Structures are given as C-alpha cells and as structure tokens.
Amino acid sequence: MAQLNHKSEEVLLNIFNVGKKRYKVFFHLNIIKWQKLSRHDTFNEKQNNNDSDKSTTVSLCDILNVTVKEATTRNGLYQIHPTLDIGSPSAIASPSTEFKEFTIHYATETRKRDQLKELKYNAISFCSNDFALVRIWFLTLHDSLRALRLNRPKNLLLFINPYSGKRNALMVYEKYAKPLFQIANVNVTCIISQKANQISDIIIEQDLTRYDGLVIVGGDGTFAEAFNGLIRKYLQYDDFELDDESFSQKINIPIGIIGSGSTDCVAYSIYGTSDPTTSVLNIILGSSSGLDLASVRNDQNTLLKMYCSVLSYGYLGDIIRKSENYRKWLGTKRYEFTGFKEFFKNNGYEVEISYLVDDHSIDNREGCRSDCERCSKIKSHTDNNESHHEHGTWKTKTGKFFMISAANIKCACSKSPNGISPSCHFSDGYIDIICVKHTNLLNNLKLLLTLTKKDKDISDLGFVEKIRTRKFQFRAIASNEMNFNSDYINSSSTQTIQSSSNYFDQKNGLSSFNCDGEILLDSYVTVTGHRNILKVFRKTAITPSI
C-alpha cells in the first residue's frame, strides 16, 4: 500500500483500471509511468515480462492538470472537482470525501524523422474501488504540481485579430485554445481587435503587471503589432535606450502566438509547426526563452519598425505591396497570384549593402537548439562588451539582386519547412542577410523549389550568398540616380512615400520592403540586431512518451 509522505523521494506503485483494462502505475522523482497488464499477469510478473505492450512515461513538467471525480450514490454518477489554483477545497480536504478516479491531463509530442513535429493533448483516467488509494495518488500529484505551477502563467491577456489570414482566428481560439486553457485553469482576458494598431495602443495603455503573459491569435503582422507596442511602451521611459542591455530586462512579460495568419512564419519558426494546439500547450507549460528583434531606422535615425522574422527587399517586397491591389477579390490567394506574376517579370534591383563583420559572423550551419552553445557564447561576449554593436570591420557589397532578405529567425512555414535561413539563431543578436543575385528564370525556379524542401538550404545555390552580421546599412540605387532627388526618396515620412509608390518601381527601378508582412517604402535603412529583447513562450524539449 502506498504511503503519502509529501517527500520528493516518494514512490507510488499500484494497479488501477482504465476502462476494462488493468494498468500498473508508477510515480517517482517527478516521473509517472504506466503499463497495461494482461488478464493473467500478476503484479510482479509483469516487471520481467517482455510483453509487446509499451509503457508510457510522462514527466511532471509536461502535465497540465490533475482532476478527480467524487464517488456518489445517486445513480452511480460522479461529480468533477477542479483541483489546481484553488488551494484545498473542503470537499477535497475532508477525509470523508470518497474519490473514484483521477485524471492526468498531459502533453506529448509526435515525431517525424527525429524532429519535433507537434505537441498533442492527452488524458488518461485511473479508476479504483480503493477510494483511499485514489486520494493518496491525487493529493501527491496535486502537491507536486503546486510548486511547478508557480512558474506557469495563471492570468493571460489574449488578443484576437478576426481579420488576419483566413479570418478564422476566433474559431481557432474557441476550438483549440479555450478548452485547453480551461483544463489548465488559466484565466484569460480576451480582447477582439476591431481596427489596425488597436492591439498596440491597448498594450501601451494597459497595466500589464496583472498578467503573466500576452498571447496573440493572428498572423505575423498581428504579432509584430503587439511587440512593437511593447517596445514603444517601455521606450517611453527616458532612462532606457534600445541598445542598452537593461532594456531587454525591462520587458519581462513573455509573449506567445497562436497562428491564424496566411503563412504563420513566426509560429512555425518558434514552435516547429503552425499547429494551434502545439502553440497553446507551449504557452500553458510556461517555459520561455529569449528572442532577438531587429530595429529598422531611416536616414534620419528615426525608428521605423522592430521586426521579428524578415525584412525583405525585391521579390518579396514587390509581392506584399502589389498584392494589395487584389485583396478584395482574392483574399489570401492574392500572395500566390502576385508571386506568380512577379516571378515571370524577374525584376532585378541595384543595391548597396554595408555590413559589420566580426569573429562571431561565421555561419557553422548548425541550427538553434535548447542550451544553444552559440547563443551562450554570444551572451558571454555581449555581457562583457557594452558597445559590441560597433566592434568589427565594415564591408560593402554592391550589385543587382532579385531579392535580399534579412532574416532574424529561420523564417520557416508549411510551404517552406526549412526556411530562408535554417541556421539562424533565436538569441545571438545576429541577422542573416540572404542575397539572391539577379540571374534568369531557371535559377529563380531552382530557388523556389529549394525553399519547398525540408532538408535543403538556399545558401547552397551558386547565385545565393549568406552574410551574418549584427548591423548593416541598406541603400537602394535608383536607375536614374544622377537625376534623382534623394531628399524625396529618403523622406522620413512613410505616408508621403506611400502616396507616390508607383514612382518607386516604374520610374526609378526601386522596390519596397516587406517587414513582417507590412510595407516599408524607405530606400535607405539601417538595421541592427538586438539580443534577447523579447521573452517568448517556448518549451524547447518535452519528455517523449515511450
């Protein structure tokens, strides 16, 4: 008989029923393991029996909640008692309460080719006629989870953008997120945005100290709106500058994204999939890690935007701007239609890039992992060097390019599972500039086909070059630059430039920027990587169910 002693070394080992099957269940050192017993197995025989039935092992840190059902005499029905975040209710604390079964709600991962694919929600209920035994197991797991949940979110501020992507964000929340939040006893304050920049404005004005995290249900643009609101909120303090290490420490509220956009590049890159359940489980389990952001400034040193995924000029910039002409009658298909048209146009753009190179600019072709060695080394270097952005050697590259993309993360999605830069890191403070030379349609086709492969890197193509840097300056060169009014093009007013957007590409051979799905039309920008500005909900590893 198991004994309840509330010690970390405690061992529980008993037999329970799951439906009509018998299971041997074991708990020790925050690990729960259960294995099905055959009809004729005794308790001890199964330990040495090489049966085909596999056991399941779940770490306590992967458990969302443990619930219990009370035995009643009325028609044999059970009453469900929530068990977490409410202390010890009298019904649970009372020795006279009889418990029939307890249920473990937990997360498991599905794997494909040894890579994390998705997290799934599972639940299993263990039943016994020994009510005292059920009580011991339930209270032991409940007490063990209590300490663990101190680091998990209890109150979340959640924003839904009903207009993002396929306009199904509200359905995604109701179907995938809300039930799991309820199971985990997470309180959610839900706000549905009605107009552009509303989320950013609310974040700036809202007192965030009441919340343990922010959650975005939307696309990459909605996520960008949220963290740009956070940046502006904390830049209001005169004591903080964006380049200060103390600035990243100021934003200590983690943020998560549940993808419901057109590409869901950010969600896919962070969680390894755009599956909404995976995102929700990452948020509930509460682990977080640092995420770099990159700042974009114009020639007046005015901060235009912070971006998380990619700043792209040329092909992707043309798509994001010209697709707006087809928004009303093509919806999300406008990107594919515009991309098809621009592909055959094969436009090339003259560009000058000046970038900073140092000892950490070398790409070792290894992706970012949990306990990443590269990110740890960069952290040590920057902690000992406050002005690290200005150290190194400046180099300049000039040429004609089909596309130039400055990736802050790998920028993967379901159509490009390996992303633009597979070896880009989450928290090293560096940006990968992908320079695609202007060549011919055949090479452009090779580029697009390579992007669709799970095990290919476009930087292996002969006409593609990757540059890793902390900071770079970008200047678009107009085709008639000798007669070009640079003051007009480099105007700090984005609205002025947007009103004359046709002037850019038709008369002067200029493209535009795609900045996290938003349009930027400045032709001269300075981009700087900022290490660990954000904290994102991201569980880097889950104990596999064996």
TrEMBL record:
Cross-referenced InterPro entries: ATP-NAD_kinase_N, CERK_C, CERK_PH, Diacylglycerol_kinase_cat_dom, Lipid_Phosphate_FormReg, NAD/diacylglycerol_kinase_sf
Superkingdom per UniProt: Eukaryota
GO cellular component terms listed in the entry, alphabetical order: membrane
Domain DAGKc: 151-300
GO molecular function annotation: ceramide kinase activity
GO biological process: one example: ceramide metabolic process
One Pfam family this sequence matches: DAGK_cat
Entry's transmembrane regions: none
Record-given protein name: CSON006857 protein
Source organism of the structure: Culicoides sonorensis
Gene this chain is encoded by: CSON006857
